UniProtKB/TrEMBL annotation:
Protein name: EF-hand domain-containing protein
Keywords tagged on the record: Calcium
GO MF term set: calcium ion binding
Domain EF-hand span(s) in chain numbering: 12-47
Record-linked InterPro entries: EF-hand-dom_pair, EF_Hand_1_Ca_BS, EF_hand_dom
Key word Calcium present: yes
Superkingdom assignment: Eukaryota
Length: 98
């Protein structure tokens, strides 16, 4: 039995994740705090969004300030962490803003 599914390429996947994270920067200050990242994981239907947000920050936060700067390598690190979790990413038009 062969199952077919729509494959999302890496650049598309990264763009979807970036769009998601940008939507969850609630105060638009260019920094993602734990609550904002946790809401993003909830939108991804993460089983434990608090756990994922904690470890996402731990893996991505290079300067140790407890937030993810969206204007440097920390954002890329967080995107890579989310990609590794292999969430089923819907197309952008099917995503809802939280």
């Amino acid at each position: 039995m062969v199952m077919c599914s729509k494959v999302t390429t890496a650049p598309q996947t990264e763009k979807l994740i970036l769009d998601l994270l940008n939507r969850h920067d609630a105060d638009k200050n260019g920094l993602l705090d734990k609550a904002e990242i946790q809401r993003a994981f909830k939108e991804l239907n993460s089983w434990l969004p608090s756990y994922r947000s904690y470890f996402g920050i731990k893996m991505a936060d290079e300067d140790g300030d407890g937030v993810i700067n969206m204007n440097n390598k920390e954002l890329d690190n967080l995107v890579q962490y989310i990609k590794k979790q292999k969430y089923d990413l819907p197309t952008q038009k099917n995503w809802h803003a939280s």
